[in-house]
Design a protein that fits this description.
single chain, 299 residues, alpha/beta, 23% strand, globular, DNA-binding, transcription regulation, HTH-type_LysR_regulators
Length: 299
């Protein structure tokens, strides 16, 4: 039986997601391509690797064995590349980093900039994901580092504090809600809403609304927090964004920012890794930098 690294990464993604659809998306493949590749793996070994049902998939005993060896192989390859990179002059390295919306837009730019300037040979493959997916991907070895919130179970991942992210509602000045000191998210469901065009934060808000039996009355979706604030300031509706973004946007848009009182709306963000000895030298350096308090530089 002959499996390549792409086969192993796909198989682990499917096993960790419990779904061929989600696993295919994580591996960057279409569902038909992923399904065909998994069937070819089973045919090559003449063995059933996955039990398929309406609820998803789970590995068979043979699949569990393959998953164990696949994790070991991928971890060793990452270590090999890191060690060889230390000897190769001019060789570029890439660190895979997953983060949620707030981390990417509000915190990472100022934290990544100094480190990347000091390490011109290292590129960052940065992807936006929800915190639950980040925990799964880092655990499975699909990313060296993640930035996630304390709202999810990080399992055995090693965590270091990164930032505190507080969500606020932004409403036009003079709006009936503007005089309140705090708001429950449920109070927003009856209001015309301005959302994000895409991203983990908007997915989270949609899921929170569904959890309490409602849905957001979406009027329009904007690509940036600045766009949401500009629309809210003009009276087109209300939105939910990080407090740091609201403070920045108040300088140019006539909005009022009201903290959300829901517990999930104040999130402690952490940088996470699976196991520090497994990290490449570049990933270890970046993780140590991100684990430093904001304002302190590490080279």
């Amino acid at each position: 039986m002959r499996f390549d690294l792409g086969d192993l990464r796909l198989f682990l993604a499917v096993v960790d997601a419990g779904s061929i659809t989600r696993g295919a998306a994580e591996a960057g493949l279409s569902l038909p391509a992923a399904s065909e590749r998994l069937r070819d793996m089973e045919a090559a070994g003449d063995v059933v690797l996955l039990e398929r049902s309406r609820r998803g998939v789970r590995p068979t005993e043979a699949g569990e064995a393959l998953a164990h060896h696949a994790r070991t192989i991928l971890r060793q390859i990452a270590q090999m590349r890191g060690e060889l990179g230390a000897y190769a002059r001019g060789l570029r390295a890439t660190v895979r980093l997953l983060a949620n919306t707030a981390a990417i837009t509000e915190f990472l730019p100022e934290r990544l900039g100094p480190w990347m300037a000091a390490h011109p040979q290292v590129d960052i493959e940065l992807k936006e994901r929800q915190s639950l997916d980040i925990a799964r991907s880092v655990t499975a070895g699909f990313a060296e580092i993640g930035i996630l919130s304390d709202a999810v179970d990080a399992g055995s991942l090693h965590l270091c504090p990164f930032a505190i992210d507080r969500l606020v509602a932004v409403v036009p000045r003079g709006h009936s809600l503007a005089a309140k000191d705090r708001l429950q998210f449920a109070e927003l469901l009856g209001e015309p809403f301005i959302g994000l065009a895409e991203g983990a934060l908007q997915d989270n808000l949609d899921a929170r609304a569904a959890n309490i039996g409602g849905r957001l009355k979406m009027r329009v979706k904007m690509r940036t927090f600045e766009g949401i604030c500009r629309m809210a300031g003009d009276g087109a509706g209300i939105g939910v964004i990080p407090a740091t973004a609201a403070r920045r946007c108040r300088r140019s848009s006539p909005i009022t920012a009201i903290p959300l009182a829901d517990r999930w709306a104040t999130r402690r963000l952490s940088a996470c890794i699976r196991n520090e000895p497994e990290l490449t030298p570049s990933a270890r350096s970046l993780f140590e930098h991100l684990a430093q308090p904001a304002g302190r530089k590490r080279r």
